[in-house]
Amino acid sequence: MQRQHTGRGRPVIPADWTTGPAAVVEGTLSGTCSIRRPGTTGTGPIDQATGQRTGTPYPAHWAGSCEVWPLTQGERASLIGDEEVTVVDHGVKLPAGAAPEAEVDDIVTVTGLGEFVVASIPDASRTFSRVLLCTRHQP
């Protein structure tokens, strides 16, 4: 009968094994960004030209350090056959555990680069950093 190795009473991989590498990744993030919900508060006066109620953008629900990198080299078709698809063209890296309330369609404002829309949040991106896959915001 074979015995299972238990590490002499201690776990083989410590429960906090990600804290060291996550701190290193966070130290390399050189940009700053904020994340907010799309749309506006809609509490202002009605714009006579559009018939829409004006308002201010929702406040940021997260702000901190980040890094942005392009995922494509240029414009790509967003129509394949008869179906329109979302082309993800930028990645935004945040510290591990950052922005837990971030959702698809949130607006990421990156200082000096403009605004991006969150298209996808991969589940596997929470160990050392949090990655948001985004497209350029077209207001």
Describe what you observe in this structure.
The protein is mostly beta strands. Helices cover 7% and strands 33% of the residues. It contains one helix and eight strands, in the order αββββββββ. The strands form two sheets. The protein has a six-stranded antiparallel β-barrel. It has a two-stranded antiparallel sheet with strand order 3-4. The protein starts with 18 loop residues before the first helix and ends with a strand.
Short description:
By secondary structure, the protein is mostly beta strands.
Any chance you could write out the topology, listing elements then pairs?
Elements: H1 19-28, E1 31-36, E2 60-70, E3 79-80, E4 83-84, E5 90-95, E6 107-110, E7 114-120, E8 129-136
Antiparallel strand pairs: 1-2, 1-6, 2-5, 3-4, 5-8, 6-7, 7-8
Shape: elongated
Overall helicity: under 10%
* Biggest sheet descriptor: 6 strands, antiparallel, barrel
- By DSSP, the count of extended strands is 8
Measured by DSSP, the beta-strand proportion falls in 25-35%
Number of domains: 1
Q: What Rg do the Cα atoms give?
A: 20 Å
Query: How many H/I helical runs?
Result: 1
Strands of the largest sheet, in order across it? 1-2-5-8-7-6
What characteristics describe this protein?
elongated; mainly beta; single chain; 33% strand; 1 helix; 7% helix; six-stranded antiparallel beta barrel; 8 strands; 139 residues; two-stranded antiparallel ribbon
